[in-house]
Amino acid sequence: MRIVIGGALAALVISLAACGGSGTGSASEQETQQQADLYAIGQIQQTFHKALSTKDIELMMSVWAPNATITVGPGQTMEGTSKIRDHWLNSNPFQPSNHWVTATPVYKTRATANGDRGTLFFECHVIDTTTEQVVAKSGADTLVAKMDGRWLITSFVTATSTLSP
Hints:
The protein is of the alpha+beta class. The protein has a single domain, classed as Roll (Nuclear Transport Factor 2, Chain: A). It contains four helices and seven strands; from the N terminus they run αααββαβββββ. The radius of gyration is 23 Å and the shape is globular.
């Protein structure tokens, strides 16, 4: 009987330890998840810039939620991936005659994560590879959400930017 009770107690202790009974493990796991979320959110802007630079519409669309909105000026808001796709296909960076690359200074990128919602601000500096001149610059204020384990843009609003720090 003692062996059975001892075995049951040992199983109980092991199961409680495995459930993270200590607050330290839980806080550590939360911090790790927070850092993973911030990294994944930051990857959105990297994917965005790669898509613009390579004129890859499928890659561009991979960062948008199905019902996302994009606002590019007063009264110029589009909703849904079909309209967002059309916007990018008709934008200057996607035009075949333009040989542009886009980049964002790391120090001008800010991200937040809170559960399955977050924010991302980044700037786009568009450079003509032929003239090596900056041809456009803008910023993006975005709302992002984790959907089916992936972070996606839900709202994108163009913002002003500066070329200085």
